[in-house]
Input
Amino acid sequence: MSTEVAEAGRAEAVRQVGRPADRFDAPEKVTGRAKYAAEFPYPDLAYAALVHSTVARGRITALDAGAARAVRGVIEVLTHENAPKMRPLSRLNLGSFVKGTNVDYLGTDQVHWNGQPIAVVVAETPEAARHAASLVRVTYEELPAKLDFAAEEPHAVPQKGNAIMRSAADKGDAHAALAAAPVKVDLRFTTPPQNHNAIEPHATTAFWQGDRLTVHDTTQSIAFLRKHLAMRFGVPERNVRVLAPFVGGGFGGKGMVWAGTLLAVLAARATGRPVRLALTRESVYHTVGGRTPTVQRVALGADRDGRLTALIHTSVARSGGMPGQVTAASRHLYAAETVHLRQSLVDLDLLPPTAMRAPGEAIGTFALEAAVDELAWELGVDPIELRMRNEPERDPLTGRAFSHRMLREAYALGAERFGWRERDPRPGAMRDGRWLVGMGVATAYHPSLIMPAAATVRLGADGTVLVRCGLHEIGVGAATAQAQIAADALGVPLESVRVEVGDSDLPAGPMAGGSAQTASAAAGVLAACDKLKRQVLALAGPPLRGRKPEEVQARDGGLHVGGSGMTYAEILAGAGRDHVEAAVKAGWARFLARTARDGRRWVRAASGAQFCEVRVDADTGEVRVSRWLGVFDVGRVVNAKTAASQLRGGIVMGIGLALSEQTLVDPRTGRVVNPSLAEYHVPVHADIPRIDVHYLDDPDPTTPLGLLGVGEVGITGVAAAVANAVRHATGRRVLDLPITLDKLL
Amino acid sequence: MRPFAYVRAADVDEAVRAVAGEPGAKFLGGGTNLVDLMREGIERPATVVDVTALPLAAVDDLPDGGLRIGALVRNSALAADPRVHARYPMVSQALLAGASPQLRNMATVGGNLLQRTRCPYFYDAAAACNKREPGAGCDALGGFTRGHAILGVSESCIAAHPSDLCVALAALDAVVEVRGVGGTRRIPMAEFHRLPGDTPHVETALAPDELVTAVELPAVPVAARSRYRKVRDRASYAFALVSVAAALEVRDGVVADVRLALGGVGAKPWRARAAEELLAGGPADEDAFARAAEAELEPATVRPGNAFKTRLARATIVATLRELSG
Output
């Protein structure tokens, strides 16, 4: 355990952290004052709309923009023939890390997927831009394209791993152990492609003044986007300002730089006007990647007592974007004697996939946890009991310690609160009128990561605190959480703390991804608060003069030793200062070194137990989730209200994954067939029951404040819990998501 | 959206004349479907004639115990009408099973009759569609067909009719009153919608200048005991995979009267006359319900993506009749 971290966790008596504080931005959002990327006004603002390709692969042989140009109000139609060129990506630039695709938009006549943007219309009104875009006529020379995931799956190639994201593992001879196992299951699962449907479609407002660029964007990664834009448009990074004070949901879909952002900036440069490009929902489907489809095999061998002798989990997913860690949970969840894990990828001529809430883990835990449930059926053992028999003491593959592991506690508490004992284990035995009732469980698991984050903390002579960190308010209450943390660290009331976020002029915050933003920013904010306290202490007169920082407590708006102390206002007034400020920088080298070091020492993750009750219509096979309970080990909880909302939101998204969400890609054309909220079925309110969320609230000893991340663990295990409940209700094991009624007829 | 002229009509005749004089003009009611289609570039009217100010928003009693529903009655208003609740519960249930409260507050009864299919290939201008462009071909054939019809389809078009309300209207033998420049006429519901054949772009019996002015529901005593059951891919805000509008009266174990219509499976709102004929005068039991359902579905033409609909329709018909007979 690192000592500085332990002290940070212990020194402050917890006052604000853990409270269900109302989020600071609620009044702004409720009254509509909160401004999003497509809402910043500029004089002389022009509007852009995209023209999408209608073939999957080929080259443009002719592009007739005559009719589009003739539309009243059209300023420019940018195509590969007239658009300014963007610079290529550099391997050495961290901004390349957030490229959504490798495509050189409007740089060539090449078409790489059906729906790729091939022209941009800029006009005086959004209506004129969209109408003109519909008039652009394009002819193509079509080339053969690989469009059918199922057909290409046999040609998958091994996925490359790295130190942080490993892709293969072996322990013993799992195939031999499986063959010899007295009890086994060997199942093939499929999960479909899915698309991002954040409430706010992607939007960009871009404004050039000479070589200086201002961009309002729907981004989860301000700092990387800034680097990326500077690189692509050949200007110094300091010339680029990215603003994203509010983002209407991210889920990974706004982590990478997609066509809309680049083309808005390009259009602004080409026309010399501020340009807004607010994507239609359909354009989001055509330009922003989603969740990869997978084919997975999970084979489990066990002795007659249910102890696992073999665990095989292999996956085939799509290449491109950020490769998901589909088999990651299988590394850590079960004490199997032998293990065989492989991840493979196929190349397709479609828009590449990207991160989508627990990118590999959401679907990997579906296959693993459904297979474990099926093994429980084979053995005639309660599925919770089977998991407990295989709960490892140390990481099964590496033998390393778990920094935190409370799955036994999570299942015990969950079983009690959910009424698991009332479950009649026989399939189809629980009935309520026309409904077959089923109960299922599954384990949630998501690795815990901390990324570099810079922050400054400024203490005013009036005792107010300003925290500045370029983190992202993507709907999670991020600023409020950091205010709670700073309030406790400095011993001031929550109302005294203001937090500035969402601006590249601020110290670079972490990306809002990997469930890491709050913990990462907390590390920076805590370090800055610590530094600030030392600076303030150095300014203080008696009774604080000469005291060591470790002796001093921050509370009641000042610093105290035992019963005596001074307020910050007194200290600053005495020193003749109107403020004190401390800054902490983010170091990527230090981050990589620490991540590697931590990875050698322990395995760190958020986890939980998902409990689901479903009702399946005995006649029609309609599945309705009727009850949900999740018990989570997410370390310490910063804000009881917003953390519960995130976990609950993950479960809602998981119910969509389980029952209804699916992007239909026509294998003949590569065209997305259902690019709308009417036809792509995210859950609606009527699909979601009351969701009870509990967390164990036990700080992890290895992270600042003991946080493990709450953004993604909530979705993991959900699809399996639903599938397992359906299995219990009907006796039918559905292996292919989504679990639609036709699979149960 | 392409530019268009907007005209607000002050009376029915003015509206009809405005459309009759403008090729490609469209009446605008609630706009919940037409405006969507205009945004997608599927409907491209040069002129839109707004009829929402016309005096067609009343629900009146008919002397025989039926109801005359003005074409501009909003879906939410009709669903809440106590007379509809009492005499035709299936109508109220069908309306409430459709869309969302916001859409139901806008959508009109007349517009509901003219809803266009949700076939995704119809909605995608890059796809081939005989309904959108006669003779272009049909990308739904060999494509994703989960939402498509299995009854009344042709090799030109397998699109399903999307309306919930129309299924109930079909079961009740509603009559559609329309006005054109040539005067008023009454079209029985069974003749209002057309099967695709080789002209799937012709969807109704309406002439281009004709405006739906009212829908009449005759007195149907059996409908007081009726049900609209909609089966779909999520609990709300989705189109029917299968829906059933049914009314049933059983006397001494024998079916004394029955009405049955299907949604989600037909190229038009599907009155299940074969099933009704088999049921009438026969036993009201599970076997009879199943035989009737099978008879109705016997001519189904299925594709890999919608083959489950015959099983689902059968199960839903049986379950709905069982519920009504219990």
Notes: The first helix of chain B runs from residue 12 to 20. The interface with chain A takes residues 1-3, 41, 118, 120-121, 123-127, 139, 142-144, 231, 233-238, 241-242, 308, 311-312, 315-316, 318-319 of chain B (CB under 8 Å).
